Amino acid sequence: MIVLGIESTAHTIGVGVVDDDGVLANENETYTPPQGSGIHPREAADHHAVKAPYLVKKALDKARVKLSDLDAVAFSQGPGLGPALRVGATVARFIAIKYGKPLVPVHHGVAHIEIAKMTTGAKDPLVLLVSGGHTMVTAYSGGRYRVFGETMDISVGNCLDMFARFLGLPNPGVPHLEECASKGKVMLELPYTVKGQDMSFAGLYTAAVKLVKGGKRVEDVCLSIVNTAYYMLAEVTERALALLGKREIVLAGGVARSPILRNIMEIVASEYTATLHVVPPEYAGDNGAMIAWTGLLAYKSGVTISIEDSVIKQRWRIDEVPIPWVKLQ
Ligand code: AMP
Ligand code: MG
Asked: How many domains does the chain have?
C-alpha cells in the first residue's frame, strides 16, 4: 500500500510518501518569520501555497511513484493554525477528487507519536510529546492516546522560542537558547509550576524576561529557564511512568532534538529501568512523512473522511481521536 501525506499545521509544509515498510520520501519546507516575530498564520499559509505543488512533485519523484499509484491521500486535519491547515487540506482534497483516492484525516499530535514509534521500534511507550503546539505526556489505553499530564497554557517550545526571540536569537529558538545556556553558571530562581500532572510555562517566560530586564546575566537566565522547563517535564513524565509501569519512554516532537532534554530523560528512564527512545532528528519536527505513515495505519483500519466532512479542526484534542490500529497483547 502507498500513501501520500501532507503536513501544514504551522510553520512547515511537508509531503511524505510511505509504503508498508516505511518512508519512501519526506520533503519539507519551513516558513521562517522575520527576525523578532512569531508565525503569522496568513504569511505561513501563503508560503505553504507557493511550496505545496513543488513538494508534491519532489516527494513523488523521490518515491518513484505517480499520483495514480497512490492507495490513499492523508492530511493533517488539526490542530493548528486555520489558514495554514487549509492549504494542506485543499491540496489533499484536490488529489483525492482528481485521482479518485480515499481521503484520510490525521491528528498532528498522533502523527508525531506514530512516526516516533515506527522509527524507534517502541511498542507501548509513555510518550513525552514536545512540539511547537504540544506539551504532553501521553500513552495508549483503551482505544485512545490518553493524556497523563499537559501544559495548561503555552507549549514548552513556544515558551522557549518566545524567550529566544526576546533575546534576539535566530529561529528555531530552542537550540540557540541551549547554546546560550551552555555558558550559564548560576541557576536563578524561576517559577516551577507543576499542578497535579499539569504544567504552566507562560509565567516562566514572563519571569525570565523580568530577570534579564533586571540586569541578571543573560547566560544564567538561559540556563535557568531551560533547566526549569525540562525539570518540570521530567517530574510529570516520571510520575506517569510510576503510575502506568510502561517499559519504554518515547521522546517525540521538535524539542526531542534537544541533547539536554534527552540526557534528563535518560536519567528518568534509567531510574525505572525503562528504555528511552528518541525520534530521529529528521522526523522530530513537523514533517510530511509522519502524516503519510499515520494515514497508512489509519486507512488500513478503515479510517477515511468524505470531502464534505473534511473541514479542518484548529482545536482537536489528542484524546478525542480513536486509534483503531494499535493492538496490544
Ligand atoms: P515542531 O512543531 O514539532 O516542528 O517543533 C518546533 C519546536 O522545536 C520549536 O520550539 C523549536 O525551537 C524546537 N526545535 C527545533 N530545532 C531544535 C533543536 N535542534 N533542539 C531543540 N529544539 C528544537
Ligand atoms: Mg508539531
From this structure: 2
CB of residue 7 inside a 6 A radius of ligand 1: no
For residue 117, tell me if it sits in a domain. Answer: no
- Ligand number with the minimum distance to the CA of 177: 1
Q: How far is residue 288's CA from residue 9's CA, in Å, rounded to a whole number? A: 11
Instruction: State the CATH number of the domain containing residue 264.
Output: 3.30.420.40
What's the one-letter identity of residue 230? Y
134, 169 Cβ separation under 8 angstroms: no
173 lines ligand 1 (CB under 6 A): yes
Instruction: Answer yes or no: do 108 and 130 share one domain.
Output: no
pLDDT tens digits, 32-45: 988 888 899 999 99
> Is 327 a domain residue?
no
Q: 83 CB less than 6 Å from ligand 1? A: no
**Kind and range of the H or E element at 125?**
none
Cell of 61: 519523484
pTM for this model (two decimals): 0.97
329 has a pLDDT exceeding 80: no
- Which residues keep their CB under 5 angstroms from ion ligand 2? 131, 286
Contact 138, 318 (CB under 8 A): yes
